[in-house]
Amino acid sequence: MLNVQNIFKDVKNLTAKLIEVGLSSQQNFPTLNKLSQNISEISYANSSDLSIALKNVAYQDIYDELDRGKNYNIKMIDGALIQLLYHLQGSQLLSHRLAFFSSPYLESFQNEPELYEEDEIFADIIDKNIVAVPIRFDYDPDNFQEIHHPRCHLTLGQFKNCRIPVSSPLTPSIFIAFILLDILPPSSYAVTGDS
Fold first, then answer.
1. Name one Pfam family in it (predicted).
2. Long-range CB contacts (< 8 A, 24+ apart) of 20-24?
3. Which of 41, 78, 81, 166 is the 20 to 30 Å CA partner of 138?
4. How far is CA 108 from CA 15, 97, 129, 189, 194, in A?
5. Statement: residue 111 has pLDDT above 70
6. What are the tens digits of pLDDT across the range 156-185?
7. Contact 72, 81 (CB under 8 A)
8. Bridge partners for 84 per DSSP
9. pTM score, two decimals?
10. If residue 152 lies in a helix (H) or strand (E), which one and from where to where?
11. Which of the pair, 191 or 178, is modelled with greater confidence?
12. Please, how many CA atoms are within 13 Å of residue 68, restricted to the half-sphere of its CB?
């Protein structure tokens, strides 16, 4: 059942699991905040203004600002940043913002390539043809507009009107499974339990 405690527990457990399997290099455990008597926010320590991610600035500048401010739940070992933000009123989901910001550069790879070249988990990450593209799943029924702004949508890159309709909101586990199974290499499957 979808409720504040279940979503919060899911984010907390996913954070611990990503640490346990060695995919997280830094993290901010989830926080549960009461915004009003009825509305709760599941966020993370250091959560601040995310408008930088929506501005017309270079992707590397967006990434650097989010990284510098530790504005993420998880920083993956390749530098990718993951954000899991939910607003609920009781058991009713009001909105969510689930984002993946791939690293525009791999500084540790550049400094110590021998640590990564033999490791299967980095095989895809260090390929020269990989492009850093932010991925965001939003559930935002308050801003629904027929055709132009679906209630639930996927945004790829920084295109202002790129909103690909999605059939329903995502749980934290489904979003992380999507990232691990469809974005990252097969060696990251240990978190989802798939093989």
1. DUF2290
2. 21/188, 21/190, 21/191, 22/77, 23/74, 23/76, 23/77, 23/180, 23/188, 23/191, 24/74, 24/75, 24/76, 24/77
3. 78
4. 22, 29, 18, 23, 28
5. no
6. 887 777 788 899 999 999 999 999 888 766
7. yes
8. 98
9. 0.83
10. strand 152-156
11. 178
12. 7
Token pair in block for residue 91: 């058991």
For the segment 75-110, what is each residue's pLDDT rounded down to a tens digit? Answer: 998 899 999 999 999 889 999 999 999 988 765 544
Residue 43 main-chain phi, psi, to 5 deg = -140, -140
CA max distance for the chain: 53
Under a CB-based contact definition with an 8 Å cutoff, are residues 47 and 69 in contact?
A: no
Q: What is the 3-state secondary structure (H, E, C) of 60-101?
A: HHHHHHHHHCCCCCEEECCCCEEEEEEEEECCEEEEEEEEEE
Phi first, then psi, for residue 100 (nearest 5°) are -130, 120
Residue 178, beta-bridge partner list = none
Name the pairing type of β-strands 39-44 and 30-34. antiparallel
> Rounded to 10 degrees, what is the CA torsion of 171, 183, 180, 66?
-70
Q: Is the dihedral of CA 107, 111, 117, 120 positive or negative?
A: negative
